[in-house]
Amino acid sequence: MTTLENIQIYQNEYQRRCEPARKEFASRKVVKEIFTEGVEPKLLKLFMIHWSALSAGLTEPIPAYLKRAGERCEEEGLKEMAEFFYQHEEEEEGHDNWATEDVKKLVDTWNLEEPNFHIDSKELLNHKMSPAVKRYHQLHERVIEGDSPCAELAIDVEIELISTTYGPLLLKSWVESMGQNSLPSISFLHEHVRADVGHTETNFEVVHKLLAQHPEYTDTLVETAGDALNSYADFLDDAMNYAKKMYALVSKASV
Asked: CA angle, corner 219, sides to 217 and 220, nearest 5?
């Protein structure tokens, strides 16, 4: 079942009111550049290196956030939401290590292909908490410690929806530029595209049930969804800006 079909099945006030924020995300310059306009192969390699490094920073505390969201939901008497977050916590465990391994593989390949411009994977990973990554974590903290911790669900929904909607486009661009044999180097992206299809369907169902029982949470979920989309677009901006700075240095070194 496609993401579009899932949205139609679980059509509700949340889905309708999130549509403008999703369109705004799609209109962001960096989103169009990466997913629709196409990126030159060498820049694409550098983007994937930085995206993977920042993804390690982005995902590192997610299991802890989900656990805390579950605990707060239990306090609020939202037992089903608490169980959802606890289950999701287990699914997200170790994803930062996954992204870290991709960084190492991508950098090893880059250093073989570009011996005149060596990249240090350890140095990249030492700076995995970019400004946008930090703001993303601040969003989680604000939601979990706020009056409606169940709104953590909206972050899950929108970020995993990005994986299923945009991930295949990036995957296709990568394979066209680097070949099918290069897929093991981007396992974090590849597996999220595959796995988040099922997660997205579950997420939509959970939102639908929550708002059927508690429509008073709609405003907070919609607001949080918009913040999550803006935050992830900023994250893409950080990764692309870092890649472009390095790309300029590579270009100078090859002259």
From this structure: 70
Higher pLDDT, 135 or 38: 135
Question: What's the pLDDT tens digit per position in 202-230?
Answer: 889 999 999 999 999 999 999 999 999 99
Residue 4: predicted pLDDT: 47
Which SS3 state, helix, strand or coil, does residue 1 take?
Answer: coil
| Burial class of residue 192 (count of CB atoms within 10 Å of its CB; 0-12, 13-18, 19+) | buried
Q: Which of 64, 72, 54, 57 is nearest to 88 (CA)?
A: 64
- Rounded to an integer, what distance in angstroms lies between the CA atom of residue 50 and that of residue 103? 8
Nearest to 62 by CA among 101, 98, 100, 88: 88
Q: How many other CB atoms sit within 10 Å of the CB of residue 240? A: 22
* Report field, pTM of the whole predicted structure over 0.90: yes
Concatenated DSSP letters for 110-160? HHHH-TTS---HHHHHHT---HHHHHHHHHHHHHHTSS-GGGHHHHHHHHH
